[in-house]
Amino acid sequence: MVRTTRQGTNKKITASEQLDRELAAAALLKRKRREQPTRNEQAALRRVEQAREEEDRWRYYSSIPKKHWREMSGRSNKVLIEQAARYGLPFGERVIDLPAVVLALHDFLAKNKYRLIGVDADPVLAGPDSKALERYRLARAKREEWFYERDKREWLPRAEVHEGLAVLSRILREAGETLLRQCGSDAHEILDDAINDAERAFDNHFGNCDPNDD
Description:
single chain; mainly alpha; two-stranded antiparallel ribbon; 9 helices; 5% strand
């Protein structure tokens, strides 16, 4: 015995699946007779029903009526047909195969990943594919992402960070002078060492660089 899988190919039913079907049939017969199925029969019936529901779901995925797709997309038939032709996406027919549309959509996104983020304005990007061009494209994409994050103020210019730290360090050192006068040199040395340690930790983490080099 064979059954149809989600890919549309035929697959032989395994011995365990055949046993489940027999136990499920026995469970249904007992219910019809108002008898209590065994635990194994009930479990087999649940598995058979779940498998049938899964197969039905995939069958529905591959045969979505055009009317439903139009309602979900909020587009007219004319627009859908034009978009399907323009972008090579298979949703212009009378019946929509959703798995085919999903695959085509992700292929489209992968093929146009640089164009979609606006890095194809550089004529160099229009050249034939090569490893060097791929590295260049990745570098351009990272650069565009950096500018985007900077514009959102999630990244700060290096000079602003150094300026803020310099102000903080000056405030703490002034506090250290107060500690020196009021509490003696031991307290002052503790704070001064802490400030120096913090500055070294910052340089190690972010790099000891010129604050004007952005």
